[in-house]
Inverse folding.
C-alpha cells in the first residue's frame, strides 16, 4: 500500500483532529476489511430500502405450480419455498425488517443507556444504584423478557425491537459509565472545573464528545446483535408475524423442508451472516478510524 | 554583602496596594483509610496585585494542596479550615455555586501537565473562546477575536492559524501557553501556576516564565507560582515562601532569601541547586537526607528536626513560630536560624549523613 497521506501534518491551519466526513472516509479506506464491511452494508441498506423496486415478485406472492424451485431456476434466482414464494424477494423485504429492528432497538438502548451511564460514571453517589439496576436487567434472560412482552403487548416488530432494545441497555450503560470514569479523571476535566465549569457543562462539553467514538463503535457492534435477536424472536414466532417476511421467520418456516430443499434455510441464513459480519467489520474499522490521534495498526 | 532592605515596612517589593488574596491559618487534612493526614498546617500569607509570589518546597510539602484549597478544588475527603479572602470575599465554606463563579473569573489555575490539559476533540480556538463566552458573555465573533489577542499576549505566533488547530498538533510549550491564555481569559485577579514548567524542557521553560512575568506586569494580577525549582524562583519571583511538611517555614524577598537563608531547610534546598563555577570544576550537589514526614495531626515540634543538622532537644519538643528577623521582612520558623554565612556552614554539616 502506498502512503498517500500523512496525518501528522504540522503546517498550521490544516484541519485535523477527530476525523470528520471526507477524512474519516479516507482513513476507513486504509483498511480493506472495514471497506468491505462498508460497501456490503451500503448495498444491503440500498437493497432493503429499494426492495419494492428490486424484488422480482411480491414477497407474499405464492405460486403453487413452482414450489421448491432450486436456486438458479428461471425467474427465481435464489429458488422458491414451500409455497412457491420467491426467496430473493422475501430476503430483500426481510432485510428491511431486520435492519429496522436492529437500528431502532440500538437507538432505544442509546437514548436510555447513555444518560444513565453518564450519571453513573459522573455522580459517584448514584453509581451503585444505576449499576445494581443494570445488573438486574442483565441477569434477566432476554428470551423470557421477549416472551413476556409478546404475551402482554402481542408479538410484533415494534415489540421485538423494544425487547431487544431493553436487553441492550445494560451494555450501553456499562460502556458509557466506564468511559465517563476514565474521562472524569483526565487533566482537561480538572482544568475545566478550575475554570469554573458546571457539572453539566463538563459532562456535555468534555465527557460526552470524548466518549462518542467509543459509543459509535459500541452501537455498530450492538446492531448485528440486535439483528440476530430479531431473527431469534421471529424464528420463535415472537417477532414479525407470518406471512410478513423476515429473515427469522423464513428460517422458521424452512424447518420442515430443510432436508428436501436446503436452500430455503441456507439463503436467509447467509443473508443474516452477511449483514452481521458487515456491521462487525465496519464497526471495527470505525473504531480505528475515529481515534483522534490517527493511530494506525 | 549589601544590605538588601532595611525598610521596616514588611513585604515592600514588587506588589502595589492592598493584598488581593489574604490567607489566614489555612489547614487542610484528608481522611484516608490509614487515618488523618494533615497536608497543610496553619499557613497564612498575602498576595498583592502585581506581585509574583513563589511557593517552594519538595514533593509532598503541601504546596499543590494549599493551592487547590484556595478555591475549594479539593476532593470531598479533604477538610479545610481557616480563612481565604479574595478581595474581601471569604472562600472557605463558600457555596459550590459561589466558588464556581470565582473560579476562572477571579482566581485561575495553570497546571503542570500541558499535554493532557486540553480537550482533544475541540480546536484550541474553540476552547479559549468558550471560556470567554462563559465568563465574559461575549458572542462568538468577539470571543474569537479576543482569543486571538490572548494567544498573541502569551507569545504565540500566527494566533489566527493556531486557533484552528487541535491540541495534538501543538507542542508542549505551545499547549502550556494556550493553557495560560485560557487561565487569563477571564481576567483573574489571582493566577495560580502549579509547577507550570515542570513538564517542559529548559528552553521552553524560560519562555513560559517570561509570559508569567509579563502577565503579572500587564494584568496587575497576583501570581502565585508553585515550584520545586529554585532556579525558576530566582528568575522571576518577588517574594518566596518555603513550605515544609505542610508548614510555612520561611518567607522573604527573593534576594534576601538567596543571600541569607535562615531556615536550615532553605539552606539545604539552596545547596541542592546546581551552580556553574567560574573555574569549570564539577561540584557535587548537596542533598537533604531523608524524606518529608507524613503529619497526622498537630505536632508540637519542628517537623524538619529529623533531617536538620542544627536540631536539638528544643526542636523536637516545641514548634518554632514564624518570626520576623529584626530590621528586615525576613521571616523564618526556626529555633536556631542559620547565620549570615548559613549557606555554607549549615549545608556542610549535612555531609556524612546518609
Amino acid at each position: 500500500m502506498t502512503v498517500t497521506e500523512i496525518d501528522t501534518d504540522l503546517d498550521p491551519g490544516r484541519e485535523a483532529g477527530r476525523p470528520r466526513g471526507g477524512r474519516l472516509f479516507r482513513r476507513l479506506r486504509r483498511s480493506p476489511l472495514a471497506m468491505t464491511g462498508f460497501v456490503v452494508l451500503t448495498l444491503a441498506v440500498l437493497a432493503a430500502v429499494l426492495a419494492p423496486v428490486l424484488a422480482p415478485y411480491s414477497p407474499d406472492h405464492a405460486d403453487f405450480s413452482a414450489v421448491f424451485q432450486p436456486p438458479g431456476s428461471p425467474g427465481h434466482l435464489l429458488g422458491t419455498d414451500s409455497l412457491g414464494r420467491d426467496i430473493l424477494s422475501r430476503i430483500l423485504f426481510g432485510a428491511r425488517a431486520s435492519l429496522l429492528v436492529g437500528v431502532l432497538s440500538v437507538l432505544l438502548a442509546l437514548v436510555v443507556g447513555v444518560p444513565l451511564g453518564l450519571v453513573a460514571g459522573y455522580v459517584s453517589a448514584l453509581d451503585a444504584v444505576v449499576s445494581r439496576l443494570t445488573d438486574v436487567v442483565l441477569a434477566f434472560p432476554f428470551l423470557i423478557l421477549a416472551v413476556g412482552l409478546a404475551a402482554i403487548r402481542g408479538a410484533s416488530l415494534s415489540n421485538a425491537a423494544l425487547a431487544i432494545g431493553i436487553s441492550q441497555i445494560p451494555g450501553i450503560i456499562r460502556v458509557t459509565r466506564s468511559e465517563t470514569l476514565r474521562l472524569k479523571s483526565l487533566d482537561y476535566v480538572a482544568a475545566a472545573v478550575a475554570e469554573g465549569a458546571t457539572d453539566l457543562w463538563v459532562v456535555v462539553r468534555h465527557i460526552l464528545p470524548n466518549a462518542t467514538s467509543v459509543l459509535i463503535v459500541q452501537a455498530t457492534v450492538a446492531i448485528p446483535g440486535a439483528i440476530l435477536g430479531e431473527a431469534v424472536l421471529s424464528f420463535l414466532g415472537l417477532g414479525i408475524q407470518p406471512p410478513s417476511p423476515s429473515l427469522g421467520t423464513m428460517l422458521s418456516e424452512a424447518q420442515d423442508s430443510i432436508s428436501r430443499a436446503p436452500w430455503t434455510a441456507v439463503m436467509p441464513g447467509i443473508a443474516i451472516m452477511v449483514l452481521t459480519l458487515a456491521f462487525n467489520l465496519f464497526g471495527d474499522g470505525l473504531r480505528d478510524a475515529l481515534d483522534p490521534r490517527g493511530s494506525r495498526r | 554583602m549589601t544590605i538588601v532592605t532595611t525598610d521596616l515596612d514588611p513585604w515592600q517589593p514588587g506588589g502595589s496596594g492592598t493584598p488581593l488574596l489574604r490567607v489566614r491559618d489555612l489547614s487542610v487534612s484528608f481522611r484516608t483509610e490509614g487515618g488523618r493526614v494533615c497536608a497543610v498546617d496553619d499557613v497564612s500569607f498575602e498576595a498583592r496585585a502585581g506581585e509574583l509570589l513563589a511557593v517552594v518546597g519538595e514533593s509532598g510539602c503541601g504546596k499543590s494542596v494549599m493551592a487547590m484549597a484556595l478555591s475549594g478544588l479539593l476532593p470531598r475527603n479533604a477538610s479545610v479550615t481557616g480563612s481565604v479572602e479574595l478581595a474581601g470575599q471569604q472562600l472557605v465554606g463558600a457555596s459550590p455555586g459561589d466558588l464556581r463563579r470565582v473560579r476562572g473569573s477571579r482566581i485561575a489555575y495553570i497546571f503542570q501537565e500541558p499535554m493532557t490539559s486540553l480537550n482533544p476533540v475541540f480546536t484550541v480556538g474553540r476552547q479559549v473562546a468558550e471560556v470567554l463566552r462563559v465568563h465574559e458573555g461575549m458572542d462568538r465573533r468577539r470571543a474569537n477575536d479576543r482569543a486571538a489577542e490572548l494567544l498573541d499576549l502569551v507569545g504565540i505566533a500566527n494566533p489566527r492559524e493556531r486557533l484552528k488547530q487541535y491540541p495534538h498538533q501543538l507542542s508542549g510549550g505551545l499547549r502550556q501557553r494556550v493553557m495560560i491564555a485560557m487561565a487569563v481569559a477571564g481576567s483573574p485577579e489571582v493566577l495560580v501556576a502549579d509547577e507550570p514548567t515542570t513538564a517542559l524542557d529548559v528552553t521552553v521553560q524560560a519562555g513560559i516564565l517570561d509570559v508569567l512575568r509579563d502577565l503579572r506586569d500587564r494584568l496587575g494580577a497576583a501570581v502565585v507560582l508553585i515550584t520545586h525549582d529554585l532556579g525558576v524562583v530566582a528568575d522571576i519571583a518577588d517574594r518566596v515562601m518555603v513550605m515544609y511538611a505542610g508548614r510555612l517555614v520561611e518567607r522573604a524577598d527573593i534576594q534576601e532569601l538567596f543571600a541569607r537563608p535562615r531556615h536550615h531547610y532553605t539552606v539545604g534546598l539552596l545547596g541542592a541547586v546546581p551552580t556553574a563555577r567560574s573555574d569549570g570544576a564539577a561540584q557535587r550537589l548537596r542533598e537533604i537526607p531523608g524524606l518529608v514526614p507524613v503529619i497526622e495531626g498537630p505536632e508540637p515540634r519542628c517537623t524538619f528536626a529529623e533531617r536538620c543538622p542544627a536540631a536539638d532537644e528544643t526542636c523536637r519538643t516545641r514548634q518554632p513560630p514564624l518570626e520576623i528577623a529584626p530590621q528586615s521582612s525576613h521571616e523564618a520558623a526556626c529555633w536556631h536560624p542559620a547565620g549570615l554565612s548559613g549557606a555554607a556552614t549549615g549545608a556542610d554539616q549535612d555531609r556524612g549523613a546518609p
Notes: Chain A is about 70% helix and 0% strand.
